[in-house]
Amino acid sequence: MQALMRTILAPAALAALLPLAAIAAAAAPSPGDAAHDTLAHDIFKQLIEIDTSDSTGNVTTAAEALAQRFRAAGFPPGDLALLGPNDRKKNLVVRLHGAGGHKPVLLIGHLDVVEARREDWTTDPYKLIEKDGYYYGRGTIDMKDGDAVMAAALIRLKQQGFRPSRDIIAAFTADEEGGCCNGVSWLLKNHRDLIDAEFVLNQDDWSVMSEHGVPRVARLIATEKLYADYQLIVTNKGGHSSVPRPDNAIYELARGLTRLARFQFPFELNAVNRGYYEQMANEVARGQEAADMHAILRDPPDAQAIARLSRDPDNLSVTRTTCVATRLAGGHANNALPQRAEALVNCRIFPGHSKEEIRQLLVKVINDPQVTVRYVADDGSVSDRATDERAVDPAPLRPDVMQALTALSKSAWPQARVIPFLDPGASDAKYTNAAGLPTYTFGGVAVDRDEVRAHGRDERVAVAEFYKWNRFFYRYLSELTAH
Ligand SMILES: [Zn+2]
Questions:
Q1: How far, in Å, from the CA of 330 to the mean position of ligand 1?
Q2: Sequence-ordered strand ranges (E) for 276-412
Q3: How far apart are CA 324 and CA 317, in angstroms?
Q4: Residues 417-452: pLDDT tens digits?
Q5: Of 104, 210, 233, 298, which has the fewest beta carbons less than 10 angstroms from its beta carbon?
Q6: Could you tell me the distance, in angstroms and rounded to a whole number, from the CA of residue 435 to the centre of ligand 1?
């Protein structure tokens, strides 16, 4: 922890920290916990059993069910807003008023889930089934667990008459997983005033990584890479395949892809992945791996250490931009020279670089004027030039968030270290971060690294982890809004 704090936290901010022991004491069980667990379970079950997938489901139904619960718990109608671009994609925004000492905190959680087909699953994906110490169902880990935990915490705080130091706003939203109408983006564009905040807590993660059941790392996602698709295209006049020529759309594309496969984007460190490796090197890693982690932090970084560490895809993905071919198509007949060959290349861009900058770099790497590199927007439209959109550089880590997480984690997962993390993937935090609302993503359930079933079949969360997260989140939120 010390190494990280030295790097990222300003001394003045450190001075404002509360004693960790005070928060740790608050983690002890309290009389309301059992009823709070029951409430979270009931909301969780209700949400799982409403299909909110884009193709067959309806997010509005889930948003309305939550609104009903908030009304029943005493939230006045004026503090609830159910709104969205169409009848199936309504988002729910709830506000718990505080003393107004600071700008609000915004909690975000997406209500939609990835499609799940009954025939692929052992259980009914739209029923909450408890089996062998796990809850099964679509959304049990991504992320109706987080939605239930957010809603239960707000209801408990309301019923206790808790007056936070700042307003707590929660947005339960549509289409994080895909679909027409991303709720966070839509709210920022159309109702910024409703969700404007000093910072954002996003619950869309399973942040506690275990190895063989032992939690090792609790990652706080403080920045994300930027998603971008590119199309590589070669066209050719074609002809009869009995008379081959040296120019061939498929071969030219293949050679370009091979050059891309051999290319590695430059190694990069920012405040977040630097903090991550400092802490990993000092507290988690051992032997050669720890030595390599120390070596990449030197100035200049050690090239051999970078090469060794980068053999692990998890390290590779958090220290540079990556681009990888994900789809391929070409030719139109078995007996014809191909008139067209194309590939889709998916990039995950390191914070600070723009989509167009990466497109131009791809052109250089592929180094063949026959291969055109075009940008594919989220709606599928293709253009010669990419946008200048870039993943924003991370905001400084908030001492209050780090401190509360660290103290509560100590009692929840004593063997795990809280470590800031650069997410190679992307979540709704990309919209809030881009809008200038610094976002910290943490989902307090422990999962074995190779056991994550989000988006997959038989998605599940450990029953004990669900309730641990429930109590954790309530305390986390109370602590962060107490002062
Ligand atoms: Zn998610």
A1: 34
A2: 322-330, 336-337, 340-349, 372-376, 382-383
A3: 11
A4: 999 999 998 899 999 999 999 999 999 999 987 788
A5: 298
A6: 20
Both tokens of residue 157? 């705080």
Task: Give the Å distance between the CA of 235 and the centre of ligand 1.
Answer: 39
Consecutive H or E run containing 194: helix 192-195
Query: From ligand 1's centre to the CA of 146, what distance in Å?
Result: 9
Per-residue pLDDT tens digits for 244-260:
999 999 999 999 999 99
Angle at 432 between CA 437 and CA 468, to 5 degrees: 90
Distance from Cα 143 to the centre of ligand 1, integer Å = 5
C-alpha 305 – ligand 1 centre gap (Å): 33
How far are the Cα atoms of 7, 322, 404 from residue 253, in angstroms, in the given order?
A: 45, 19, 52
> Which phi and psi angles does 66 have, rounded to 5°?
-70, -45
CB 446 within 8 A of CB 210: yes
Cβ neighbours of residue 421 closer than 8 Å, sequence gap 6 or more: 207, 219, 220, 221, 222, 272, 276, 318
The closest of 95, 103, 61 to 78, measured between CA atoms, is 95
185 SS3 class? helix
Closest to 108 (Cα-Cα) out of 223, 195, 229: 195
Residues recorded for the chain = 483
Distance from Cα 175 to the centre of ligand 1, integer Å: 10
Reported as a single tens digit per residue, the pLDDT across 162-180 is 999 999 999 999 999 988 9
User: How many C-beta atoms lie closer than 10 Å to residue 363's C-beta?
Assistant: 17
How far is Cα 240 from Cα 333, in angstroms, rounded to an integer? 10
β 382-383/134-136 pair status: unpaired
Residue 281, beta-bridge partner list: none
Distance (Å) from CA 88 to ligand 1 centroid: 19
Q: How far from 250 is each of 243, 256, 326, 344, 462, CA to CA, in Å?
A: 16, 10, 16, 14, 48
Return d(Cα 125, Cα 355) in angstroms, integer.
37
Taking the CA atoms of 388, 437, 216 and 40 in sequence, report the sign of the dihedral they define. Answer: negative
The CA 345 to ligand 1 mean position distance, Å, reads: 23
In the reported structure, the alpha carbon of residue 98 is separated from the centroid of ligand 1 by a whole-number distance in angstroms of: 28
What would the two tokens of residue 417 be? 């270290």
CB 407 within 8 A of CB 167: no
Which tokens sit at 66?
Answer: 């939550």
Burial level of 301, CB count in 10 A (0-12/13-18/19+)?
Answer: middle
Could you tell me the distance, in angstroms and rounded to a whole number, from the CA of residue 142 to the centre of ligand 1?
Answer: 5
Looking at residue 451, its pLDDT comes to: 80
